[in-house]
Amino acid sequence: MRGVRMSRGWIAAVALWATLVPAWSQAAPSAKLCRAVCVEQIASCIASGQPRAGCARLTLWRCRHEGLGVCQRAQVLEATRDPGGNLVPPDLLTAVARSSNEIDLSWTDSNAHDTGYAVERSTDPSGGFVVIAIVSQSPLSFRDASVADRTTYSYFVRAISRKGTYSPPSNILSATTPPAADTVAPTVPTLQHATAVSCAQVDLVWTASVDSGTSGLKGYDLYRDGLRVAQVLSPATSTSDAGLAPMTSYGYSVSAIDNAGNESLPSVPVTVTTPPCPTSTTVPPTTTTSTSTTTTTTPTASGGMAVRACLGKDSSATQYDRIVAAGFTALDRAAYRDYLDGLPAGVKALVWLGDYDNTTCTWEKSDDWIRTHVEAIAGHPAIAAYYIADEPHLWDCPLAAVHLKARSDFVKSLDPAHPTMAVIEPHWPENPYTPYVGTVDIIGVDRYPCSYVSGCVFSKIDDTLALLDQAGVPHYWAFIQAFADSYYRMPTADEVHEEFRHWRQSRMEGYVVFSWAYGTDTLENHPDLIDALGWENSQ
Questions:
Q1: CA-to-CA distance for 59 and 36, rounded, in angstroms?
Q2: Residue 202: enclosing H or E segment and its boundaries?
Q3: CA separation for the pair 83, 73 (Å, rounded)
Q4: What integer pLDDT is reported at residue 138 of this predicted model?
């Protein structure tokens, strides 16, 4: 072998030159270069007992067609590794996991005569490192795209001299790849029960889904007649759909969603039909006596109400204990999760989101405020509705109805699970409700019949009901008068019952009593009114 013996350092330099040349110059190696680089490979083949000519011919053929790497480049580089002579190690190595399958490295180098860098990697530094790449002198960076997700990799870099020797290693740095993107949808839930509990509400229950992806189960989307109407956060597997029309069939299905946005197929649809709303029951009559005659009135109970609410606060520590004790199932609360979490079982909230200013024709609360507060409570099971405006005036603000619809749509985009409600004040000569049809889910109707000037004119309620039907208002809640101010006087217990009697002849789907406390007065000063309202709530 005397005629072909070469220095180990020269062989390494040739091998390194071959790996460091730019990609544009890496054509098939020449026969001369292959003979120089593959000397030891050929010698090893001959030493194993193979024919000399065959070893040379086969090895050189592989080198020309497969590249110089077939001639034991790794062994050549390892054999030439030494303390590095005058090379100093690269410095300031950084490693950043860009994705689940990429880690990017960069470093600095003060050597003037190095020709490239060896990048070494390990998943267990105590077990040693392996060279994964030889890179050119510039740029001082490397993209490792051979990594797996959720794995920690440690790296260091060595500079390579012109003689093929290595510098000491740089600092060791580690990076952990994140989980791969979750593209797996949760399993399909099964809608087990869809029950019409009243003429305006359906309760739904379904089985829990399992998410086998990496992001975890977020919750469930409820669909009514193909349209998403609610999102219920996991681990809950039930909800109620309120504000429905009586004697109407609805088709429900539910799908599961994960935190990556993957949605399962919907469950098999279930159809349920709401019953008619009860119109009356018999109650003990109340009697009013004057000097000349005795009149007996029999109030009629309300039934099938989605909401039996009362505005205002009582004198208890919670500010609602006495209201709840009177049988009310909904209260007005501010848009804070702590307030909703603290409500008793079976009691829901009309969440107040600020008013519409009829002076400036703008909203009291900005869109940013609405987004922050609604997103924080969206989907909460204690929400009955979002109360978004109280008596916007078209005669002061011609675009009030347009603004109301825009605000309602914005709230619904943040929480599609719950309805919006606004109180609209009667105003003539035009029908006051026509411009507001479709702006919110529920219109609150505050037609108060009792004043100091005219006494109680209950036909005002009947006139208002005719206007609601004329305008085609699909869903409304009655606002029941139980307060006094400089114009309106406090109704008696019999007069409260009479208000309900007129409203129960309508299509109202809920009612709101205004108000437990107003000005300097409170219903706690009128126990007979509390008794009357408690009876109405019990029906």
A1: 12
A2: strand 202-206
A3: 19
A4: 78
3-state SS class at 407:
helix
367-379: b (≥16 Cβ within 10 Å) or e: eeebeebbeebbb
- How far apart are alpha carbons 108 and 140 in whole angstroms? 7
> Contact at 8 Å (CB) between 218 and 236?
no
Convert the pLDDT of each residue in 324-335 to its tens digit. Answer: 999 999 999 999
Q: What angle do CA 372, 408, 507 make, to 5 degrees?
A: 135
CA distance 232 to 264: 14
Q: What is the pLDDT of residue 127?
A: 82
H or E segment to which residue 67 belongs: none
Which of 43-57, 371-385, 501-515 comes out lowest in average pLDDT? Answer: 43-57
User: Tens digits of per-residue pLDDT, 102-138?
Assistant: 999 999 988 877 888 999 999 998 888 989 998 887 7
Dig out the tokens for 529 from the structure: 């009114």
The stretch 167-195 carries a mean pLDDT of 91
Domains of the chain: 2-79 (no CATH), 91-176 (2.60.40.10), 191-273 (2.60.40.10), 294-538 (3.20.20.80)
pLDDT of residue 55: 74
pLDDT tens readout for residues 405-427: 999 999 999 999 999 999 998 76
Give first-to-last CA distance, the chain, whole Å.
110
In one-letter notation, the amino acid at residue 111 is N
Question: Of 162-176, 205-219, 277-291, 388-402, which range is least confident?
Answer: 277-291
Q: Could you tell me the two tokens for 166?
A: 């290595």
The whole-angstrom separation of Cα 302 and Cα 212 is 49
Between CA 124 and CA 152 the distance in angstroms is: 9
Residue with tokens 């086998």: 212
Torsion, Cα 213 214 216 218, to 10 degrees, reads -80
In the numeric block, the tokens 């993209």 are attached to 143
Instruction: Name the residue among 385, 398, 458, 467 with its Cα closest to residue 426.
Output: 467
Specify the 3-state DSSP secondary structure of 478.
Answer: strand
| Single-letter code of the amino acid located at 123 | T
Q: How far is CA 385 from CA 150, 352, 382, 415, 506, in A?
A: 43, 9, 9, 10, 21
Per-residue pLDDT band for 70 (boundaries 50, 70, 90) equals low
No. of helices (H) and no. of strands (E), the chain: 12, 30
